[in-house]
Write a structure and sequence with these properties.
7-stranded mixed beta sheet, alpha/beta, Archaeosine Trna-guanine Transglycosylase, Chain: A, domain 4, 391 residues
Length: 391
């Protein structure tokens, strides 16, 4: 890697990076090479000029995202090496199998490459760059993805870069592939459209929570709100749910939910899909459902919107708690990173008090093993969930 400059930390501001936290904030920096551009590789040194690691530079609150720690310069095969380690983790955790060929290959800070997300759908890898450094290195990353997947026997026919920034267009960095593409998850099949769909095309982080939902859905009437492409709905039906209704405000999401129902052999007219606001749909549905899934998009992406997000989670959960059948089960989630686990729990408690029902917590849920959280970067835990029993 070509190192373009140096970042010198203030005295006493090197503790977190020496404890392997991957972010260096602007307030910790004493000096920076004047010619640095966003995305440059930089050497980071402490006040004594001792090298503490290397990373990508970018102007902003998080000024450096650390990709290596220690004095050794990053090797030319850095990306391939880290991807192979990430694959080993997924294999040890038994994420990849004959029944599951859709998984997250690389999860940013959790896998030691901040700013980079890579999801694999069968033999197609979808890359997202959340930093300018990863954007600039995308050709290197694509080559490393192809090498690591083919060498380990998983195969790779295409690498698609899905742009998150106006600086670059989405494009195939390697090969081509037709969309939508069918993948398997615990034996269930889903259409994936990484070109037009949300995120990389599917919410892989709910895989194990969908599986648990399916195991609890037999014989139940189920409501899947904010259903997107119907993931929870398919699992419920495959496990002999009595009836499943899927709701999302997006017409495109509902259309894809119907396609996924048909793909798995279910009738989307019997198991109704509604393109409707969830709060409007919940009206006049007292005692209709035994099991409700509340998996909304992030209500807060910044701290200044956290208060409104909490109010939104409280209102949504209180409405579901009021109208679910006695003995019903609610799967409720927050993917808002600024709403931590304790705040989410407290919000659900408040919703329960507002609903006036006796409620028990059956499970605490989180993101799966292919979305790992570094022990030294707790901010990487973003998905929180609870399974509630409503008396």
């Amino acid at each position: 890697m070509n190192i373009q400059g140096t970042i010198t930390l203030k005295h006493g501001r090197d503790h977190s990076v020496k404890r392997f936290h991957p972010w260096i904030f602007s307030g910790a920096i004493q000096f920076a090479t004047e010619t640095l551009q966003d995305g440059d590789w930089v050497e980071v040194v402490d006040a004594r000029k001792t090298t503490v690691g290397y990373g990508h530079y970018q102007k902003g609150t998080i000024t450096v995202r650390m990709l290596t720690f220690g004095a050794a310069k990053p090797a030319a095969d850095l990306y391939e090496s880290k991807l192979k380690k990430a694959l080993q983790v997924r294999r040890e955790a038994e994420v990849i199998s004959d029944k599951t060929n859709a998984y997250r290959l690389l999860h940013g800070e959790g896998d030691g490459l901040p700013g980079l997300i890579i999801d694999v759908y069968s033999e197609v890898a979808v890359v997202q760059a959340h930093s300018t450094g990863m954007l600039r290195d995308r050709a290197l990353i694509a080559a490393a993805v192809h090498a690591s997947l083919t060498e380990t026997g998983l195969g790779n026919t295409a690498v698609y870069f899905k742009s998150m920034q106006e600086k670059a267009a989405s494009e195939y960095l390697l090969g081509m592939a037709a969309v939508p593409h069918v993948v398997k998850e615990h034996g269930n099949r889903f259409y994936i459209d990484w070109e037009e769909g949300q995120k990389t095309g599917f919410f892989l982080d709910q895989r194990e929570n969908r599986k648990l939902l399916g195991e609890m859905a037999k014989g139940k009437t189920v409501l899947n709100t904010f259903c997107y492409t119907g993931g929870f709905s398919i699992y419920a039906l495959q496990n002999e749910a009595k009836l499943v209704h899927s709701v999302d405000a997006s017409e495109k999401a509902i259309a894809l939910t119907r396609k996924n129902l048909e793909l798995n052999g279910f009738d989307p007219t019997t198991h109704a899909c509604a393109a409707e606001d969830t709060f409007d749909f919940l009206k006049d549905k007292q005692d209709v459902y035994d099991l409700i899934i509340l998996d909304p998009p992030a209500f807060a992406k910044h701290k200044d919107s956290r208060h409104q997000a909490v109010k939104g989670y409280q209102r949504l959960n209180a409405e579901a708690m009021k109208m679910i059948k006695p003995g019903g089960i609610i799967f409720t989630f927050s993917c808002s990173q600024v709403v931590d686990r304790q705040l989410f729990y407290d919000t659900i408690v408040s919703a329960g008090i507002q609903a006036g029902r006796q409620i028990k917590v059956l499970h605490h849920l989180a993101q799966p093993a292919d979305h790992p959280v570094s022990l030294y970067h707790p901010e990487g835990e973003y998905l929180k969930g609870l399974v509630l029993y409503v008396e």
